[in-house]
Amino acid sequence: MELAGYLAFVFVGVVLGLLGGGGSILSIPILVYLFNVEPVLASAYSLFIVGVTSLVGAVPKYRQHIYNA
């Protein structure tokens, strides 16, 4: 079941990359149903996951802006 959770998170990452949003909505059910995390804790984890993902995506854009300015 854990492998299915990791594969689902890869899918969420691809969807986030293509669409640009919806990470919390997609990651909470994965954490609750596939990883058996409590719903309240899953929402906190989801905020962390989406925040880190946004930060990782923002760093290359920030560097690109500095070098092109």
From TrEMBL:
Cellular-component GO terms for this entry: plasma membrane
Membrane topology: Multi-pass membrane protein
First and last residue of the signal peptide: none
Cellular location(s): Cell membrane; Membrane
Keyword terms, alphabetized: Cell membrane, Membrane, Transmembrane, Transmembrane helix
TM ranges: 7-34, 40-59
Similarity comment: family membership: Belongs to the 4-toluene sulfonate uptake permease (TSUP) (TC 2.A.102) family.
Protein name (database record): Probable membrane transporter protein
Organism: Chryseotalea sanaruensis
